[in-house]
Design brief:
By secondary structure, the chain is mainly beta. Helices cover 0% and strands 21% of the residues.
Amino acid sequence: MKLHLGCGNYYLKGYINIDFPLEKHSLQNKSVADEHADITKLKYKPNTVDEIRLHHVFEHFPRHSTY
């Protein structure tokens, strides 16, 4: 399984594209995500995720975080 976290409007074929729920976005009003979720709360069984991609996501978190 390959995950594309914080996908916004950029769909990566072959990945599960995940983005924050639209009703919680301040600017984005449409999404191409396969799933909407808070990425800090995702849970997967060990050894089930082969790859994680994210672009321009870290800047949306506070500098110090306990996630």
